[in-house]
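[agent] plan:
  1. take the single chain provided in the ticket
  2. run structure prediction with default settings
  3. attach structure tokens to the ticket
  4. add a short note for the reviewer (M.T.)
[agent] executing step 1
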Amino acid sequence: MDTVVSKGTRKKNYNSQILYFLYILFWMYLTLLQIKKCLHANNDRPSEDRLTTVQFHPSAQVVMTAGLDQSISLFQVDGKTNPKIQSIHLEKFPVHKAQFSVDGEQVVATSFRNKLFYIYDMMEGKVIPVHTVRGLREQRVKEFEVSPDGESLLLTGTSGYLHVLTMKTKEVVNSMKINGNIAGVAFSHDGSKVFTNSEEGEVYIWDMRSSKCLNRFTDDGCVSGTSIAASKNGQYLACGSAAGVVNVYSQEECMRQNNPKPLKAIMNLVTSATSLCFNPTSEILAIASRADDEAARLVHIPSFTVFSNFPMFQRKTIYRAHRLDFSPNSGFFSLANNKGRAPLFRLLHYKHF
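[agent] step 2 finished; step 3 output follows
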């Protein structure tokens, strides 16, 4: 006896196939990134040693690199030739970190072994050494963050201390202290709060104005914290650990709860998650480990899906990534690696620099 399939059944099966096809397209959209590999950002002047910094200028189509070869370099970003604009050499000063001021007119640079740091004034073409900071009782200054309003530097000290330094007078006006050692620091998008995680896996939230601790919690499942990043839209907080796990939280829940649960635990790194960076639209989270080659991933937000085609190139290009950054409109992504290069990628989804 022949089996008779009704029109309703055929239509139902057809609709199911359409839905499945749409699901596959949606999944491919989430897991595949429209990306093009460009010439290295610093191809016109590769570093002779490990790069420690890459950062895009906040308003011009320019990228900065700095590293252990005691130099800071600026390049015009066009994705094709990326010509060098200028380089400055800092004698006996291997650069640990360099960062643009908020207005993009200055660069702050620190080294490894002392508390001397430099300010490079690009408008005047002048390098200004800062030898003495009033109120700073630290033997060295390495890690720092520029506040979103551009008025302060947040210096990471020893034994859990954070020092607020005014850019105008170069003196410490406030200090905060956590238990243990600081693993990472991030400002909230408006600069009113500071997020800090410790090597012991605890996260602290500070009020920038009063220097009071607003909340404190243990990063879920973390034994040793390594990095932290806050999204530009004020919605997410990402915490990296020595195990390679990156927990992403709701900032609002972190403020309200003593034991917030992560929205997602990202487990795509197998070595310590040492660098985290949200793109300006808070749609992508870049994560990386400097402990292994090609240990960098781009995560789609808010699905928390790792883009499957990054990094996937014919030959190694990432190597050991030390810092990550997106251009102001997310059109480009770059990172600093231990080969003295800054691989540059064009994110085609975004139309502008």
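[agent] step 4 note for reviewer: The mean pLDDT is 93.
[agent] ticket updated
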